[in-house]
Write a structure and sequence with these properties.
This protein is an alpha+beta fold. It is built from eleven helices and five strands. α3 runs antiparallel to α4 (about 65-85), α5 packs antiparallel against α6 (about 105-120) and α6 packs antiparallel against α7 (about 130-200). The chain is rod-shaped.
């Protein structure tokens, strides 16, 4: 059996049983092999070498804790049997050397290898290739185990770092969304204030106009309350709100034209009758399309990207599908999909991303027009 096959067999056995059971089986196997070597030349069995061999096998049970002492004891037992006129094979000593190389520092196992190999050779117990090969196998298993442990630790560290980066990106995105919603609410409050003042001015002379104006104010107030709930959910950060006007679906043609000019063929489709949407829904739909087109431009290598808006019932469906061969997902360090999920989640909607059945990458979002309950 070559060393690689021996290593696989030993590793499989160790994985299948508890260490104590493995140690017992290993000690029994070493004793059986050694007894077989003692009397394979027709020598009549004698209690003395058998007792010494069994004792050296029993000592192997302590090899994990007292590696150096066990190696010395098994080598001494082999020499004692050889001095009594028998022909041992040194199996327990070889096993002890393998275990020492596997469990102890290389300097310690090397320091034990040289005298044990010389001693076994001097008493004609076994040739140097046996103890040297056992030591090399143990050293390889120790190196391999340390390498696997290092790789696992590194993978765990990278996973923790990735989770932290995703969390940071989500928090930043929530702050950005909250600032945008802040601008929407501020605009709505301003419109309500102007409407109330206008209704008050015409309340006596044109009550119908005042009533229509107050209805519009009521609708704007309901929308503002919904946006305020979303801001509270997002726990808006301390950064000052940006005052630039926020985009809406009315700016979608301009957005698509910009990506076409950048070399990305985009086809815009609208299904159903466009509705008056809450500003937060329009802004989220715009940002989702913008991020999906950015990913397609950077990562997908697409020849056509289809953007489809579906108005129907109480939901707005946003779908972006490219025919590229790449993933369409942002590479390491990108957090575009995280931002999409945050925007959809704050509206109480659903988001699906991934490879499309017919090829390419697909982003599909369902945004409730009424917002979350």
């Amino acid at each position: 059996m070559n060393p690689a096959a021996m290593f696989r067999a030993v590793r499989g056995l160790r994985a299948a049983h508890r260490p104590v059971l493995f140690d017992v089986l290993l000690a029994v196997a070493a004793v059986i092999v050694e007894v077989g070597l003692l009397f394979n030349d027709g020598t009549r069995p004698s209690p003395l070498p058998i007792a010494v061999t069994v004792l050296s096998g029993a000592v192997l049970l302590a090899r994990r804790r007292f590696g150096v002492a066990v190696t010395a004891a098994t080598a001494a037992a082999a020499v004692a049997v050889a001095a009594a006129g028998y022909s041992p094979g040194g199996a327990p000593a070889v096993v002890a050397l393998w275990s020492l190389a596997e469990t102890r520092d290389r300097r310690v196992s090397l320091a034990a290898l040289a005298p044990v190999a010389v001693l076994l050779l001097a008493w004609s117990v076994c040739a140097p290739p046996a103890p040297v090969g056992a030591w090399m196998l143990g050293a390889y298993m120790r190196t391999r185990r340390r390498y696997v442990r290092a790789v696992e630790d590194r993978a765990a560290t990278l996973e923790r770092e990735r989770e932290q980066l995703d969390l940071i990106a989500a928090q930043r995105e929530r702050g950005a969304i909250a600032r945008e919603l802040h601008d929407i609410v501020a605009h709505s409050v301003t419109v309500m204030l102007i409407g109330v003042r206008g209704a008050r001015d015409v309340l006596e002379t044109e009550p119908r106009v005042a009533a229509r104006t107050l209805e519009q104010v009521e609708a704007s107030a309901e929308q503002s309350l919904a946006e305020l709930r979303r801001i509270l959910v997002l726990l808006r950060g301390p950064e000052a709100a940006r005052t630039r006007p926020q985009p809406s679906l009315a700016d979608l043609d301009e957005l698509v034209a910009g990506y076409r000019a950048a070399g990305l063929p985009v086809r815009l489709e609208v299904a159903g009758k466009p509705l008056d949407l809450p500003s937060g829904v329009e802004l989220s739909a715009y940002r989702i399309i913008e991020e999906a087109l950015t990913n397609a431009l950077k990562h997908a290598g697409a020849t056509l990207v289809t953007v489809r808006l579906c108005y129907g019932g109480a939901d707005l469906e946003v779908r972006v599908h490219d025919d590229g061969t790449a993933t369409g997902e942002p590479g390491p360090g990108g957090h575009g999909l995280v931002g999409m999920r945050e925007r959809v989640a704050v509206l109480g909607g659903e988001l699906e991303t991934g490879r499309a059945p017919g090829g390419g990458f697909r982003v599909a979002a369902r945004l409730p027009i009424g917002g979350p309950a």
